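Continued from yesterday's entry.
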Amino acid sequence: MKKNVLFIMNTAILLCLNGAYADENTDNESSIDEEPVHLESMVIDAEAVTVSPQHKLNADDIAKKQSQVSDTAKLLEGTSGMSFQSGGGVSSLPIIRGLNDTRVKVEVNGMTVNSICPNHMNPALASIDRSNIGSITVLKGITPVRMGGDSIAGTISVESAKPKFAETDEKYLLNGTISSFYRSNGDAVGGNAAIGIANEYVRFDYSGAHTQSSNYKDGSGQIIESTGYINQNHAFSLAFTADDHLLELQGGQQHIPHQGFPTARMDLTNNDSIFGNLHYDGGFDWGRVDGRLFLENTSHTMDYLPGRKAIEPMPMETDGKNYGYRLLFEIPLDEQDTVFRVGSEFHGSEIHDYWPATNTNPNLFSMMGPNNFINLNHATRDRFGIFVEWEQMWGDNWQTMLGFRYDRTMADTGDAQAYNNKPETEYIPDYIQALDFNSSDHERNYDAFDMSLLVQYMPNDWSKYTLGYARKNRAPSLQELYPWSIRPMPMTMIGWFADGNGYTGNIDLKMETAHNISLTANISDPSDKAAWNIEVSPFFSYVENYIDADLCKYCDKQPTDGFYYLQMANHDAYLWGIDITADMHLFTHDKYGEFSTNTVMSYVRGKRTDGDNLYHMMPFNLKWGIQHELGGFQSSIDMQFVDTKDDVQDVRNELTTASYVLLNFKMRYEWEFIGLDFGVDNILDKQ
């Protein structure tokens, strides 16, 4: 990547206007005859202590990063065990310990939103702007059953900021933020504004954001076509509170006029989505209830952006929706040393993926006409799940969590349709393939039984050890099951792997079952200074029926340009590796401030049992940085090293890459209500 000067004017101006009008009492005398004063009940929010190891970014962490990236997923850069498959400017796919895409369960404000695009250009993390996030939690491998099924890699939970209400002696609370940024590479600019008003019981929030970038340059100064984008987001929230009960209504709209995808054969030329989300959280004498209803609808279009220099347009339209509920009951016992959780979840999705004809004249032969090509005909994937979880504190040193979950996934689709019904083509006629597909039974059902077990040992105040096992399942996605054509042109239009190959589905795919084992050791400075901390986490996963790809045995021929035509297929696979995170306070000087350092290292290796490597495995990588703080001034310089990538997958003709080192510099100054950021990415300007 070309050196990127981040004159990131993140002028986050906080408008903290609160109309606090307290009644004045001019009578300062007291009397023993007065009635006793009964204080109102007070609720103190605290993070629940859980046995599950997790990585969390809070609002302060996100505020320091959000001006450096436009892609919400990239806020998690620097998290051990995580890497990213880059696509468009705001649509990276997160990878946890070598497992990617729909193997990672992503929740945005409790909503499960799967990508509807056949190239996965609108993943869940792209549905929320990074400026509208209050916290992000990552659970790797051993995910509690309450965090959802239908995933084998882990869970990423993104939450907007919790609503804040006025105090009892305040008339109202008015607050908000405004920020902007500029980045030199691609002339990326953007800004966001948010405002909220509340009294003691009701709060209303609005946030809006706009981000755009032109095509960026690589380290040699060459412009990379189809890398520009525009992204616009609007969101609102209406919240009500009383005693220990909270009711939230959230809604929003996203508009992406275009987003280039240099790693795909198509670009995103329009994406519009809306969502609604109703959330209730309430406390009772016997425990808590957390419930949610949500609905999301997306209209998505792909075609060629001008930089592609295509001979003729090729529109591809996809309409889809996600909807569902989640209900959780939490019952603490034995002075909260024992917690039982039981609940139910439903997630439904529907995709209609069709490619409009470019020539509708039935008498004129056309490769793309006269019919609309129907890839997925109102395909549906509905999942219903129930779960139970038991968390127990055994004295001061041991804690366990045991959970069981059952999910039923039901998939189906309507009949396919080819571009034309004429046999005068050089390949196997589309209409024959469509007839074969339509004559088969499309309905597929999957029954999944998950379990998770975590044991945590805390021998003292400065060390903690967590051993976990999880049996996790994932049913095939609609894009893995139902794409039916084996003609080259439709196959090359499908594929979220960023490898240029062509893909077709496999209606007979089996469900993935992963057996995950992980050990996490966390050791910190035993002194009161807490000057250092280190966390080491080796892991192993064995995945039965891992959904990968084989050469398409039904295709008439394979191309000779280095790309292949592939079909989804099941293979057993295994992955292993280690994540290491370390932090250390170096020294404090009265004049020069505080200095500290942090290190993040990750390694993962993945193979199929037939000997081939798994695709897109991140090689050994290390990030090391030094931070400095003095008053409101903060700065850091970090080095990122990525090793040579030569353990590549043969069936996809995956490319090898050389090792590289990047140096980045960041600086931030904070006044009372204003923050200013400046930075340079890739200081050495390396390709």
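--- second protein ---
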Amino acid sequence: MSQRRTPDAARPAAARTRKPSGSSKKVEREASEKPWTIEDAAETYGINHWGAGYYSISRRGEVSVDLTDRATGSPHSVSLPKLLEELDARGIRPPLLLRFPRILERRIEELYHGFAKAISDLEYGGMYRGVFPIKVNQQQQVAEEVAAYGRRFHYGFEVGSKPELIAALAYLKDSDALLVCNGYKDEEFIDLALYGQLLGLRVVMVLEMPHELGIIEERSAALGVEPVIGVRVKLSAEGAGKWAKSGGEKSPFGLNLAQLVETVERLRERGRLGWLQMLHCHQGSQIPDLTIIRRAIEETARIYAGLVKEGAPMGLLNLGGGLAVDYDGSRSTRSSSANYSIEEYCHSLVDAVKWVLDESGVAHPTLVTESGRAMVAHYSMLALEILDVNRFENRDELAVNEDDNETLVALAEVARNINADNLLESFGKANRHREELHENFLTGDISLRERAMCEQCYWRAMTDIATETQKLRYVPEELRDLSGLLADQYYGNFSIFQSLADSWAIDCAFPVMPLHRLTERPTRQGVIHDVTCDCDGMIKKYVSGSEVTEALPIHETKENQSYFLGIFLVGAYQETLSDLHNLFGDTHAVSVDVESGRVRFSREVEGDSVSDVLEYVEHEPKKLVEQFRELAETAISEGRITAVQRRKALEAYRNGMAGYTYFES
């Protein structure tokens, strides 16, 4: 037996150099005195890392998307604030989703070129065929563009339900592309897949459960079609990250090895072993560590070799999903990152399969992957406007007199005398005094005004303590969370539940940054809240540099000037996981292209109106208007309003029904 080797591509890629988390506050203070540059902004928000060459900052201090002119093929940088200005002139204001079809096309190209290079460099005998899992983004535009842009690479679809299959059958026109059918399958699902095969598509039905084979046998006999099937196998190797449990032996999907062998025997006994042409595995989504991916691939390749030796024709080795997106730009094994590039991923997969199969004496199959997240994450970004700001810090003079409540006087004394030598002592005293005053208020021993003055004194103390800690070389642990405690609340016109579900549900860190004013130093720390009436309606994690933090460096808003933020890498799952919390609906969506040097809005999708979302939850807008009219008529008869007021109230009601679900200025 040949000795096992570990190629360079199997080793974790080195993380980018990062500033240590405990870096000197004095150094930071000295740096703050230097002129602010575009490079400082890029480092602060990490855009050169997570932006992956698609997003950058212009010399004007605006975030730009770097596209390719469809007519000339030349690069073209497009200012996002300029796009918002042009859309505003057309009556389309944030919140809105900006889609960039050229980025989707480039991601597909990069994946195929990565595998082509690995296959060539390693002298691999098979080819590569990718499939896009529709579940990652089921929007019509995405499916249509994946089919169109992927055709020259014979890029196909993976579906996991009957509706997804019906969509794929309509868009896939390439007989060399694969249509992989995963998920639970009833007779209607199987019939549709078999009809797709009759119509010339390359359909593979993957067994998720042993009983599915019987239904496939029955329906294929009824329709007179010899199906192509695959089997999904449960691996002993478990993935990593948030979705590790979707792979491994405890996965809810797939056959264990005993069931796999039983299926092979059943097919052999019935003379149908020739149906079995694909082995499928799935390690999970967003796997950050390349070594874990490789370990699972080697196990899968061993099983594939075993099936070939059992006499199955095979020829297709589906290595599933897992290709991660570097959301935080750290190039690490954190769940929001990945310690490898697309090229390294492709090289490692091809090398692992080749090594195992060469050792086993088995021919190299066509490799298949179901990379979805990595294809569409960069493709979309959400633009939103800040509506208001709330602050906790206080630098006002404290109007507390000596004859006021004794504890309140003591708290004011602490707040007035913060210095570098008493920070911990003052922090402790301020919290104790505040707690005592809260208890006094509950028992009625102090007034509402005294309670309000307590809060003023407390936040004055916290503000001054936080300011002093910035001058320290070492910050005591008790004081390290003060910056987060004092972070401003920035209220954005969007719904986290509708547009950023993974941020709320699983604390995924999406890059967030200002779209303009990046030539100015951000002087505030902010937490972004949405417009829903929910305490969870806030972004809790931010990408800052290559770290994940609890607050975002942000600018002071200016009176009568709009302030726009962008949330990036939202193209995967966020549209399909959306929730109608507070009945905030889909945002406007606009696709942006460049052709012959001119920016072109290739597609505009109007966001949900109030009547749209009411209908989603089974209200009838016409009936609602009628019921409101009755209410207004009753008000006239009771003398509460005039006929003119009734007319205006009905106009307002109808206008509201037709309006955008988000804040409209």
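The two ends are 73 Å apart (CA to CA). The first strand starts at residue 55 and ends at 57. Will compare against the first tomorrow.
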